[in-house]
Amino acid sequence: MDENKMIGNLENAKGEEFLQIFYKGAEFTKELMTENEKLRFRILQLEEQGKTVSTDPDLQAELQNLEMKIQSLKEDKERLLKRHAEVEKENKDFADRYLEVEEENNNLANLYIASHQLHSTLDYKEVLRIILEIVINLVGAETFSIMLLDEKHNEMVTVAAEGIEPHEIENIKIGSGLIGQVAEEGESRFAENLKRDEIDLNDPVACVPLKIKDEVIGLLVIYRLLSQKESFKNIDFELFNLLAGHAATAIYSAKLYSL
């Protein structure tokens, strides 16, 4: 909140500076136009005198002086317009930063709510449902699955999915293919190309291990993002970190409770 207030104060100060420069610029421009008209009229008077100007040292000096004044006024106007553009850009930068901070605050609030929801129940199916909702609403995933470790057969088995039926996804042996390697190594993998027409179940756009300490108990496998989701943001990676630990703990606790 302090950062938002500070940014708001800075934005107001920049806004006042912008208005002052704008009004001064308008007034200066009006004076400049009036002065230019006077000077040009005087130059025309002098030029009409023709040879008198060229032969009279005093008139020649006055003419040169007037031309120098006009050039100086032009340079002042250019400096003012340049400063006007700089202040306008600074105001836009502050406005953009304010929106970024506000979005970050909203995302942090959503992460807190998501974390609270994950630990609000010990019902196994409810925990899986909450994880699905978090991934849809906060990550923007369209098609994805939650896989859990089957220790007896040493493979990953799909227990919940969105956008695809769980039975359509084959079990993955630990260490087999990209998904199996993530399960074995415990390191997340993210594809470079996130926009795909076809889903490749063996080559997801993201594969995040769900871990308790260093032990992988499951995977979040994202096959396709929503159409409006063009890339992963920093907040997405924060969410993946949250899911890696909190979701794993919630699932593990719910499974123990259901036994």
What is the compact description of this entry?
This protein has 259 residues and is α+β, with helices and mostly antiparallel strands.
What does this molecule look like?
The protein is of the alpha+beta class. The chain folds into 2 domains: 2-107; 119-258, Beta-Lactamase, CATH 3.30.450. It is built from 6 helices and 6 strands, in the order ααααβββαβββα. Strands 3-2-1-6-5-4 form a 6-stranded antiparallel beta sheet, sandwiched between helices. β5 (206-212) and β6 form a beta hairpin. α1 packs antiparallel against α3 (57-118). The two termini are 45 Å apart. The model has no long low-confidence stretch (mean pLDDT 80).
State the major sheet: 6 strands, antiparallel
Rough outline: rod-shaped
Percent strand equals 15-25%
Please work out how many helical segments DSSP would assign. Answer: 6
Structural class: alpha+beta
The name of the CATH topology of the largest domain is Beta-Lactamase
The CATH level-2 architecture of the largest domain is identified as 2-Layer Sandwich
Q: State the end-to-end distance.
A: 45 Å
Name the helicity range: 55-70%
